Description:
heterodimer; A: alpha/beta; Rossmann fold; six-stranded mixed sheet; about 40% helix; about 20% strand; B: mainly alpha; MetI-like fold; extended; ABC-type phosphonate transporter activity (chain A); ABC_transporter-like_CS (chain A); ATP-binding (chain A); MetN_ABC_transporter-like (chain A); cell membrane (chain A)
Amino acid sequence: MLSIDRLSKTYGTQGGASGDTALNNVTFQVPQGQVLGLIGPSGAGKSTLIRCINRLVEPSSGTIRLGETDLAAVRGRDLRRARRRIGMIFQEYALVERLTVMENVLSGRLGYVPFWCSFTRRFPGHDIENAYRLLDRVGLLDHADKRADALSGGQRQRVGIARALSQEPELLLVDEPTASLDPRTSRQIMRLISEICRERELPAIVNIHDVPLAQQFMHRIVGLRRGEMVFDGAPDDLDDAMLTEIYGAEDWTAMRQEHEDDTTAEQDTRLQLAGGAG
Amino acid sequence: MNHARQYPRHWRRPPQIITDRRWRRILPLAILAYLILALGSLEIDGARLIEGLERGARFAHGFLQPDFTSRWGDIRQGLIESLTMTLTATVVGILVSVPIGIGAARNLVPRPIYLVCRSIIAVSRSLQEIIIAIFLVAMFGFGPFAGFVTLAFASIGFLAKLLADDIEEIDASQAEAIRATGASWWQLIHYAVQPQVMPRLLGLSLYRLDINFRESAVIGIVGAGGIGATLNTAIDRYEYDSAGAILLIVIAIVMLAEYASSYLRKTLQ
């Protein structure tokens, strides 16, 4: 269970002068197993919010509790201990391109093993076993020894997911997982993430640009606008008026129509494939 | 209001650097005037030039009939000294410059460490090899040890600066991802930074190896041992045929190193 209480972040406040407010008194909780979608226009503070949780960005005030730990207050070794409990999946995959797929997955264990162990690539047997199991789960068992830059976008994001899961996290942070993928791969990735969260009872916060995709896969949606929460509710409660409130005026009906076309096309393809096989 | 608008059919690139028309005329004239005045102050002595041509001809003649044999013992000795100096100095240079290079990367270390490491680099880079060699020869005496220290010191400035610049340009998202797993600073360096800069570091090291060999020929002239010392002696004794032989050997080795390192760099990418 993650609870965020009055979290604020102001950029560029060195010397006391007030800078840009990226987050303003954000408060919400994510119970076990819930997949929460964070929507809002660019610059609304979505990225800042999830990066405050694992402290890639320093919050200005407020508390972030994961279990018993206040993530906003830990430092040094405790911070690294806290980070390893939180898996993160990135927009442009952020794999270390010149390392192999296996090394990328094992890098999820860095917070658990001593430096010497990781330096000589001698990870404990159960870590390696688990890495293979995860690669099998995301369908990339045969690619373990390839270099990460030899994979396609969708495959890379699967490696990113396996890396995050190898941390055996208690929380998943997902930053625009589908922003650089095509619509079909995007759906596959979102489906994979939501399945995994269900299997493991894992709470997740997903930054997502694509509103229809969010409504299809999220359990709950939080809308941010200029650093403030303007919506918190079920995906079905997110109507056109609300979307206009979050993003500004736009033709939401047309966008949904397009999404439905995509989904129908996808289903057609699948039927055809099934028909061809049978 | 229905007729089509007329657009110009000519376009010229507007001046980018000096926008003032007058300055664009004055500046080339001023540069030309300075060039003429500077040439006038060179005191070119025609007679001396002709005399020099004669010496040059003797030199060229020596080149055409290089004498590898009569001073072969000295040449061999000089070459071995130079190659030893080059290799040891490059290895020591790399070992010292990697930590300094990491320390001089703004995105990895706190500001005080950054400033200290950048200052070390600045000192090493601001002193030319020959000047360092003159100091070190005075300190350690004639011979290859002074040369070794000179080359190692110069390698540090070169390698550490280029490595640091490369580290500052790594893909930040890869480093962020490794940081997010709870990795320590050392693990971050090893898993996110090293894979990104390794090919470049290897390339730079090979490049430095061949620079160091060339420099070893130059610093020998001020007494730091190696093939340069042999060359200097040969020229002092007017043995242009031996000097020619030495130069040919140096050229051959540099070319060899050049080919070998470019081949290696290509396969390492």
